[in-house]
């Protein structure tokens, strides 16, 4: 069984690598067909520009500036959204009271929040708050759905046998919450980067990836734009892989308790 799973994983990796290669070939063909670097640069040109900016002294400072703030917003949304969801699952009145706020945050366009936050907050902290706002309802609604999906008969049995709340949470709720939480994390990680970088492009905090993207737009430097976009994609994907792996291990340890 384990060998079969490993074989499937290797097959998926090969398929993904082939799909990436096909996408790059298509990009190159489109670039050659357009024939104007101003409109669409080739992947080779974008890769060369990425290598050039990566050698600059402030490259890692720029990446670190945006990474720390966007992921801080992500973790704040994860913690607060999960805590509120657990509390709302136990107190129906709290769920009712939170519903309009969570629905509003989920529905209002991110640009509206960015403009409002430019009035309320300093530009350097804008990406933290925007990332937090965008992922908060994702975690809240997903974890709440997971809590509600717990088997009521098992919960009643736990009540009869006076099983502690901690054990109920670990053995009855967590298995139900796990797929919802994993789904929320996968979606929220990408959204936090989209929203956070968008906030930086509008707010233009000094030393951020958003500032570099804005400058590329101002100077009509398409190669620079694609290079920094690639940085955002790589950073987001790498962190998602690392975080999801750690989260999976954490759940496996909890299940062994």
Give a brief outline of the structure:
This protein has helices at residues 2-34, 43-54, 59-90, 92-107, 110-120, 126-148, 152-160, 165-203, 209-218, 222-256.
Characterise this structure.
86% of the residues lie in helices and 0% in strands. It is mainly α and 257 residues long. The longest helix has 39 residues, at 165-203. The radius of gyration is 22 Å and the shape is globular. The mean pLDDT is 87.
Helices and strands, with pairings:
Elements: H1 2-34, H2 43-54, H3 59-90, H4 92-107, H5 110-120, H6 126-148, H7 152-160, H8 165-203, H9 209-218, H10 222-256
Helix pairs in contact: 2-10, 3-4, 3-6, 3-8, 4-6, 5-6, 5-8, 6-8, 8-9, 8-10, 9-10
């Amino acid at each position: 069984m384990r060998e079969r799973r490993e074989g499937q994983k290797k097959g998926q990796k090969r398929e993904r690598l082939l799909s990436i290669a096909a996408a790059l070939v298509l990009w190159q063909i489109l670039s050659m067909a357009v024939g104007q670097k101003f409109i669409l640069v080739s992947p080779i040109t974008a890769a060369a520009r990425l290598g050039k900016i990566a050698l600059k002294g402030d490259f890692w400072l720029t990446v670190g500036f945006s990474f720390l703030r966007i992921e801080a917003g992500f973790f704040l949304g994860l913690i607060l959204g999960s805590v509120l969801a657990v509390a709302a699952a136990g107190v129906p009145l709290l769920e009712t009271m939170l519903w309009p706020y969570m629905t509003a945050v989920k529905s209002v366009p991110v640009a509206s929040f960015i403009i409002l936050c430019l009035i309320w907050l300093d530009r350097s902290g804008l990406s933290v708050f925007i990332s937090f706002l965008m992922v908060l309802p994702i975690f809240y609604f997903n974890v709440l759905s997971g809590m509600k999906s717990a088997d009521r008969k098992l919960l009643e049995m736990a009540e009869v046998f006076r099983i502690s709340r901690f054990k109920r949470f670990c053995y009855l709720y967590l298995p139900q919450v796990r797929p919802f939480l994993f789904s929320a994390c996968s979606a929220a990680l990408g959204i936090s980067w989209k929203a956070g970088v968008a906030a930086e492009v509008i707010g233009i905090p000094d030393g951020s990836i958003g500032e570099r993207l804005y400058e590329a737009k101002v100077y009509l430097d398409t190669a620079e734009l694609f290079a920094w976009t690639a940085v955002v994609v790589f950073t987001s994907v790498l962190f998602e892989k690392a975080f999801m792996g750690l989260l999976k291990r954490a759940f496996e340890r909890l299940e062994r308790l």
